[in-house]
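Quick start: read one record
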Amino acid sequence: MMYGWYGGAGVWGWVVMGIVMLLFWGGVAAVVVLLVRGSRGGWGGRGTYPPGPQQEDPEHILAQRFARGEIDETEYRARLDALRRRP
């Protein structure tokens, strides 16, 4: 008795056909994912995103506070000297 078309592929024919089908649909899914990622045009035009918020150095923060008038010049210089003296 024949279990398939054209002489029967047998069990191994079905196994191979199933593996090929999985590889085919996996390839289609991979192409779709790559196309979607590439079309986003994120940071740098390569589909990547910018790094997280960068930490500012303490001297820069202190200079900003002085520029905004939150601290006076005496306090600014004292804190700047303290920052530069630390190990």
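The mean pLDDT is 81.
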